[in-house]
Design brief:
The chain is α/β, with parallel strands linked by helices and 325 residues long. The chain is built from ten helices and 15 strands. It has helices at 41-48, 121-134, 151-162, 174-182, 196-203, 221-227, 250-255, 269-282, 284-288, 305-314; strands at residues 2-6, 15-19, 29-38, 64-72, 84-88, 97-101, 105-107, 142-146, 166-171, 187-190, 209-214, 228-236, 258-261, 296-301, 320-324. The strands form three sheets. Strands 3, 4, 5, 6, 7, 14 and 15 form a seven-stranded mixed sheet that branches. It has a six-stranded parallel sheet with strand order 10-9-8-11-12-13, with helices on both faces. Helix 5 (196-203) packs parallel to helix 6. The termini are close together. The relative contact order is 0.16. Keywords: NADP, Oxidoreductase. Residues 10-323 form the Enoyl reductase (ER) domain. This is Enoyl reductase (ER) domain-containing protein.
Length: 325
Amino acid sequence: MKAIVITSPGGPEVLQLQEVEDPQLRDDELLIGVHATALNRADIFQRKGSYPPPKGASPYLGLECSGIVLSLGKNVSKWKIGDQVCALLAGGGYADKVAVPAEQVLPVPPGVSLTDAASFPEVACTVWSTVFMMSRLSRGETFLIHGGSSGIGTFAIQIAKYRGAKVFVTAGSEEKLAFCKSIGADVGINYKTEDFVARVKEETGGQGVDVILDCMGASYYQKNIDSLNLDGRLFIIGLQGGVTTQVDLRSLLAKRLTVQAAGLRNRSVENKAVIISEVEKNVWPAIAEGKVKPVIYKSFPLAEAAEAHQLMESSQHIGKILLLP
C-alpha cells in the first residue's frame, strides 16, 4: 500500500508518499480501505519526533479515518465487508489501508458523506470524554473553549449548544470569532486584543464559567483558574503554551475547583471502546438531526500531506483539514 512516511524528524518537507507493507490484521481488528483521514495537531508533534506512537501502533501518522471495511479478523462479528465506517486510530490513517480494533469503529453518521465522516472520530471522542463524561457539563451551565475555531473547538461549540450550555470561545481573529458565532457560540473573545478573564467575569455577572476546555496548558493555567465559577472544572487537553507554571492553590480550595487532563491516543482499547460507545449513543443522534455538522476547511490529496501540515501550522484554518488517498 501507499502511506506517508516521516523520512526523518523535522518540518513538513520530511513527509513523503512511499510504498510500504500492508498492515498485519489481528483477530479483533478490521482492515479499512481509507477513503479520507484528518489532521490533528498531534500529527505535527509526531512528525517533529516529540510524540511517538504507542507501543504496537502503526508507525504512520493519522489518528482517525473513514472508509470501507475490506476484511475482518476472525473474532469480529459486528461489522461486515463493504460497510461504510469511520474510526478512531492510534496511528496509520495517512495510508491506503489501516487495521483498527473493531471496538474503535463507528458507522458513518446518517446524512454525512463518507469523506466528511473522517472529521468526526477524534474530535467527538475527545470532547465527549473530557467535557461530558469527566467534566459533566450540564444543561444551563456555561462553557469556555479555547481555540474555538479549531477542529476540536468547532465540534465542541455545536455539541455543547445541542446539550443546552451557554458557550464562550476564544480565537485570534474577528473572522474566526464570526464563524464560531455562526455555529452557535454565544460569546466570542479575541485573545489578541482582549483579556479573556475580564470578559468572562463581565458576561457572567462576576461569577465565571462552569467548565473550560483548554489546549494551552501552562500559559493559561492561572487565567483559567481565575475564570472559573464555584465548583468549576478545568480540563486540559493540550500544552501549546508550555508545560510548567507556578500554582497558587488557595483559589482551588476557595472555589472547590477540579483540574483534570487527559490524552486519547494512549488509552487502552477497552477505555476507547467505552468512549466510542458513549459517542455513538449521545453524539451520533445530534449529527443525524443536523444539529452538529462537519466543519471542513480544506481537503488535500494524500501526496500533499506536507502542504496540509503547513496549513495547520499557519493556524489560518477553521475546522478540520482532510487528506484523501
